[in-house]
Amino acid sequence: QVQLKESGPGLVAPSQSLSITCTVSGFSLSRYSVHWVRQPPGKGLEWLGMIWGGGSTDYNSALKSRLSISKDNSKSQVFLKMNSLQTDDTAMYYCARNGITTGRLFAYWGQGTLVTVSA
Amino acid sequence: QIVLTQSPALMSASPGEKVTMTCSASSSVSYMYWYQQKPRSSPKPWIYLTSNLASGVPARFSGSGSGTSYSLTISSMEAEDAATYYCQQWSSNPPTFGGGTKLEIK
């Protein structure tokens, strides 16, 4: 079955960079796109960006200058890198995938990894 | 980008009561998607292509709408339906989410 699992550093100092890995199973990254979504504590959901099966990327324009998404198909891993973190980047970070027959629904989600930006 | 505004932000309902929440888009969208989220859990896919229930979603839920106005309805509120519901569009880039409607049980 389709599964996604995020892993991250937990705590990041202000102005430092963040790296999170999404490890997937049950599907091939060469055939499906993967998205990144974040949720600050007690707040709503924000789409960050995506990597298509072919390797091209799309980003939220508000964060584009700080974001980079890449992947390793052979390891079934997708990587999110964000630089110049500030306290308002504190959030749960999710990776997600669309379904096959459900249009543009984010049908599969990881459990999320909490990133706290603090000195 | 398309802004989605959900209303109300907070509501409560008694068991058996009919519940309706809305999602208004700043520009016309082709379809709306909905998620249910409970504390300390990932969002769960709930409704896709405006009116189709995701796997495992009870039949008391329904979705409708078109253009800039969409809604999610629960025909008869149950305690397990207490959660926050988010709408989402991807008719144009970037995908965007509404701010959520928190539904509580009375």
Task: List its salient traits.
heterodimer, A: 119 residues, mainly beta, seven-stranded mixed β-sheet, four-stranded antiparallel β-sheet, 0% helix, 50% strand, B: 106 residues, 11 strands, globular
Protein model, in words:
The complex is a heterodimer of chains A (119) and B (106). Chain A is built from no helices and eleven strands. Chain A has strands spanning 3-7, 11-12, 18-25, 34-39, 46-51, 57-59, 67-72, 77-82, 91-98, 106-109, 113-117. In chain A, strand 5 and strand 6 form a beta hairpin. Helix content of chain B is 0%, strand content 50%. Chain B contains no helices and eleven strands. In chain B, a hairpin with a 3-residue loop joins strand 5 and strand 6. The radius of gyration of chain B is 13 Å and the shape is globular. The A-B interface holds A 35, 44-47, 58, 60-61, 94, 99, 102-112 and B 1, 31, 33, 35, 42-45, 48-49, 52, 54, 86, 88, 90, 93-100.
Topology of this structure?
The complex is a heterodimer of chains A (119) and B (106).
Chain A: E1 3-7, E2 11-12, E3 18-25, E4 34-39, E5 46-51, E6 57-59, E7 67-72, E8 77-82, E9 91-98, E10 106-109, E11 113-117
Parallel strand pairs in A: 2-11
Antiparallel strand pairs in A: 1-3, 3-8, 4-5, 4-9, 5-6, 7-8, 9-10, 9-11
Chain B: E1 4-7, E2 10-13, E3 19-25, E4 33-37, E5 44-48, E6 52-53, E7 61-66, E8 69-74, E9 83-89, E10 96-97, E11 101-105
What does this entry show, briefly?
The complex is a heterodimer of chains A (119) and B (106). Chain A has strands at 3-7, 11-12, 18-25, 34-39, 46-51, 57-59, 67-72, 77-82, 91-98, 106-109, 113-117.
